Every structure is written in structure tokens, then in C-alpha cells.
């Protein structure tokens, strides 16, 4: 059933807003006639409709909310109708020929639509490896999101059957296990771990992230709790020394942070490779690249500073390897004034703590570009007794180097030793037909801010699909 109450804009970290487009709303509500009219008005809207990164964002904003759980099924229905409308009299399909098969299969898998997924794979068995920006990792993740074991194993078995080499089989197994955890299906995760056997810690991505990192990054509390009941892996680290609690805090997953601290209280004070604790990374998450919901990130900081499960004094004044406290991080990155206010509200906070370069939070803030938010923070720091006065200009260069260091890693469970676009090269004989015009040349599921390009797109003439086509990849009868 269509829902008229979909929220259409969200406040992001970094003092930005992000808005859904009319075509997003039409697809999530199953309004095919409206969607088709929008595409006739502006053919470039197909880019918004089929963008993987945009779709991932809408999933986190709409689909993960129980009130809007019908959105995935509505998108699948829209995709199926669009596929049928693009059939040509000669037997081909302009939507598939234009390279949108990856989007179609992702949409079908995310809705748990076994019939639609099977139809697409009958048309092109190698579509399971995706095309364009969609890869096999993304498709397995979509199927895991749907909680449909039938769709998930349909895709997994088709992918596994395409190759014979041990390297290929291992890559598919790693993708499947991490996709199940990242998609929030504890049942699938446990079943796959039993199927493949071996140590749970052997299933890692290229950044060293475990299944626990993958589940925590997406906020899947049921999977996190289930894994911690079965395995003692709360303190396992990725390649940058981050435990799962660091990843969850950085990505604004408050429920996962709480579940991890309840299951393993020492992880609240654990530090990563940069010496940062969970509060450091939660504050740093406000300036992460890409989209972060401000309300969720604020909720993590409030939870940590509430003091119900942790010693707030130990967290707020803890130093990283650069000697910086969470207040230093907030000032250096020009974080939202409300975050600084929360930190300064802790009675034991050291306002004038100095880092290894002798800089206080006020020193760092005065060296950042002035904004309305920074002016508010500056006045609060001065009113609280903050001092500054460091004159050494060489230290300013050190500050810049610190801010550029340690860029955030990709989302756990999305990067592997062999890229999705190259995995068929290791299949041991399997090859996609060179004449079908398809092939995944994108990266593996990056969830950072997208840059959408405009492209030529036009519909067929009114006489019918396939007739009088001017230019563009898709033909639909109006």
C-alpha cells in the first residue's frame, strides 16, 4: 500500500540537507504511471532511479523504517513493469541492452521477489555478477536485506556454479557470509558459517573487517547479539585497529554501540590504531564524507556521555596518539556547536588540555575557517575558561597533516581482494559472452557521496516500442 507520509528531507552532518526526488517517491510508492511520465519529461531521471548509491541512501532512510517496509516491493513492481514496457517486437529488451540489468536484479532481490529474480537470470545467467555499478557483492547484500533465503541461495548458487577455481570459490564464500551479516540476516549468517566451516574470523574483507564489523556498521543489533553469543569476537580488529564498536559509533549506529558495550563492557574504552576511543570516533563521524543522519550521530554522542554504561570522565579526557581529546577532535573539525556543548557539559572535561603540539581546543578552532557554528563554539569555549595563544606557525602545518591523515575506510564487507569487476577472471574457464555489451566496471559498493552525471536519454516515438528511436538506451511505449 502506498504511503503518503514518506519523509522527503533529512539533516546531514556537515550542516547539509539531503532531499528525496519525486521519482524516488513515485518508485517507493509503486506509482508506475507517474514514474513513466516523469521519465518522459526528463529522461535523465533514469540516473537517479537506478543509482546504487542513491538507492542505498533511500534504503537506510525509508526501507529500514518499519513504517515504510513496503518500499522495496513497490520498487520491484515498478522495475518489472518498466522491463516489460521496454520489450521490442524483435525479442530484445532496450532496458537490458542499455545496461540496467544490475539495477533490475538488485531491486528484485531486495524485495525478495523470487519470480522476478528467476526471470532475469533466465534471460542472462551472468547477470548474477551484476553490471555497471552493481556487482555480485551488492546483489547478495540486497537478497540478504530481503530476508528471503530462497532468493539469496538462488543468487549464491548461480554465482558459485559459474567458476571452478579454489580462489573463485573462496571469494564468493567471503562475499556471501559478509553480505548476510551486513544485510541483517542472522539466520543466513549462521547457515553460511556452517556451510563453509572454518574459523569465523577467516571471513574478512580486504580491510580486515569481520562479520561483526559488517553487522555493526549497518546497525543490525540482532546479528550483533547473535554473533556475540556464539563467538568471543567483540575485541577483534580490522586493518586500522578498529573494533566493531568503533565502526558502529563512527557510522551513527547507537543501538549497535549499546549492544556491544552491554555484551563486552571493556570495549567501551578500547582504542584503535590511532589511539582513538569510541567517543573520539563518534565525534569524528560528524565530518565523515558522504551522508550521515545528524540525529543518529547526535544520539550516539548523547548515549556515551549519559554515563549509564561507561565512565564519562575516562572517555571525554582520554588522549589519542596525537594527544587529542574528543573536544580537540570537535574543534579541529569544526563540528556542530551542539556536539561541543554536550562535551563541555561533562563536569570533568579538561577544556584546556593540550595535544602533542601544545595546542588547546581553542587553538585548533581559531585556525579553522569561520562559520556561524564556529563562532558559537568559540564563545562557549572562552566562557568556560578556554585559553589560546600558540604562535608557532609550524604547528599549523602539523594540524593540517593531522586532519588529512587516516581517511575513513569503506563500509565493512564491501571491499575484497579481488574486485567484483574482475572476479570472473578467476572463475577458471567461465566467461561472459563478449557480444552482450555488459560487464561490471564499477567499484565494490562504495557508500560515499555520489556524483551523478547527465547522459543522453530519449524515448521511442508514440507508434510503439522500438519504432522511430532517436537516441538513448531505453524505449518505452507511452
From TrEMBL:
Protein origin, superkingdom: Eukaryota
Signal peptide boundaries: none
SUPFAM superfamilies for this protein: Ankyrin repeat
Biased composition (Acidic residues): 442-464
ANK repeats: from-to residues: 207-239
Matching PROSITE patterns: ANK_REP_REGION (PS50297), ANK_REPEAT (PS50088)
Entries under SMART domains matching the protein: ANK
A family per Pfam: Ank_5
Keyword Repeat: yes
Record keywords: ANK repeat, Repeat
Region (Disordered), start-end ranges: 430-478
Protein name, as recorded: Uncharacterized protein
Record organism: Spirodela intermedia
